[in-house]
Amino acid sequence: MTTNNIKSESIERTVFPLLIAISFAHMLNDMMQSIIPSIYPIIKDNYGFTFGQIGIITLVFQMTSSILQPFVGRYADNHPQPFSLSTGMVFTLAGIIMLSFANNYGMILLAVGVIGCGSSIFHPEASRIAQMAGGNRKGLAQSIFQVGGNGGSAAGPLLAAVIIIPYGQHSILWFSIAAFVAGITLLPVGRWYKAQLHKIKARAVAPNPSVQALTPRRIHWAIFILCVLTFSKYFYMASMTSYFTFFLIDKFGVDIQVSQLCLFAFLGAVAIGTVIGGGIGDKYGRKYVIWGSILGAAPFALALPYVNFTLTIVLAVIIGFVISSAFSAILVYATELRPDKVGMMAGLFFGLNFGLGGIGSAFFGWLADKTSIEFIFQISTLLPLLGIVTAFLPNIDPKRKISNVRPDKVN
Predict the structure, then answer these.
(1) Among residues 53, 271, 273, 335, which is most buried (max CB within 10 A)?
(2) What are 318-334's pLDDT values in tens digits?
(3) Which of 380, 381, 368 is nearest to 246 (CA)?
(4) How far apart are CA 404 and CA 411, in angstroms?
(5) Which of 236, 225, 405 is nearest to 319 (CA)?
(6) 263 vs 207, 239, 255, CA distance in Å?
């Protein structure tokens, strides 16, 4: 894919080559991030860490990935930075190299913090570009972008099982190649974005009557509800991504590699469900997707801690598939509520994604030390029940038409 080919696509249409490029970079980015929880069993054994210390590692990573994101997004709303995506990969590259050679707890915390900063720089502007390239199909565009990240998150544990676990911590250095490839891939994306900036003022978003009818207080309330839904999803996801391997090892006595493959199956189902959810949201509405995604996963989540090994994996795959579409729907719903603050909304909800996941991981790690791994899975399965608050979201049109206006008519 060349820059000229990307430029030739009208910004009014869905620019699939660019979406594929940015999704590919997202896959590499999140693949590198996902090796952090994948190596927990190794570093726990090598350095004698407690579950609480494991939770703090995730907390540092998720907080550095989340705190900066709303500020990055808000700044980008007013001062777009087309090449910030490649800059984020430079941070990730540095963090990967540091993590491969870290030999104590402090160095591990610093390394994951640097990787988290790279993610914080990457996500808000990447989400904005994905929505721009999506044209009128923003849900599909967000899902294509998101599925790259989910696919990378699924591939991380698999690669950890075949590379890092057999060859040790230093083999993490091989993942620096992914950071380099992602940075190069994002350069033409940045050039496309830069070329489109002068066209933005010539475009106007037709007001959504359903959103216009909402008072500012009602909009703020709807955003709060979306935050609650994000909490329910990512607190639950924290228990799965950080401790599912430990749960399988503790309850069923499987080895590390088998547990990593099971985590891969769960995250692979998450990737598949993400793509399907975006298209459904464009066609039928985001609210219905959120309903079915979070609350729909509850029955399966409630049963998971009490079944045998085979059914545990089957239920984990079903949960991953069902719950995965929520984030794309939540993010696009939020940007429809505040179409003038796409970057800030993307930063806010990506930030909540990482931040709540980190807090959840630290909390469940502390709770596991006090009780047991099996107990935290019994507690965390209640979280998808919070999907019931979707009932308080206003019904808004899932589609907004884009209209062309003359540049001299735009204020």
Answers:
(1) 273
(2) 999 999 877 778 888 88
(3) 368
(4) 14
(5) 236
(6) 43, 12, 13
